[in-house]
Write a structure and sequence with these properties.
The structure is a single chain. By secondary structure, the chain is mainly alpha-helical. It has a domain of 69 residues. It contains five helices and two strands, in the order ααββααα. A two-stranded antiparallel ribbon has the order 1-2. The longest helix is centred in the C-terminal third of the chain and has 16 residues. The N and C termini lie far apart (47 Å). The N terminus is likely disordered.
């Protein structure tokens, strides 16, 4: 009985995350959102509920150069870090993902 409840609980938190190597490749080398240098893909961790410690979908990635990416992770509070940069990564990611999907069709 307890195992059934646990399985039901874990199933409610699992959601299919978007995975797209092609999309991640388009972000790599794009200008960093903060400084403009060549970027790598950063997953915006607060974009989706962090169920079972799963990484958010690739659709919630934004381009950050290695230096800015490390600064963000060292800062610790991702939401506050983005606020200090004056950038809304959720808005950017949503818009860029939609544009990517339109171009792929």
């Amino acid at each position: 009985m307890l195992l059934q409840k646990w399985n039901l609980l874990t199933m409610t938190f699992r959601s299919k995350r978007v995975r797209s190597n092609k999309y991640l490749q388009t972000l790599r080398g794009s200008p960093c959102l903060v400084c403009g240098y060549g970027a790598e893909a950063h997953h915006v961790m607060f974009a989706e509920p962090n169920a079972m410690s799963m990484k958010v979908g690739d659709n919630w990635c934004v381009p950050l150069c290695h230096s800015c990416h490390m600064k963000l992770h060292h800062y610790g509070d991702e939401r506050t870090w983005w606020d200090l940069q004056g950038i809304d990564p959720i808005k950017w990611a949503r818009s860029n993902w939609e544009k990517f999907n339109e171009e792929c069709q």
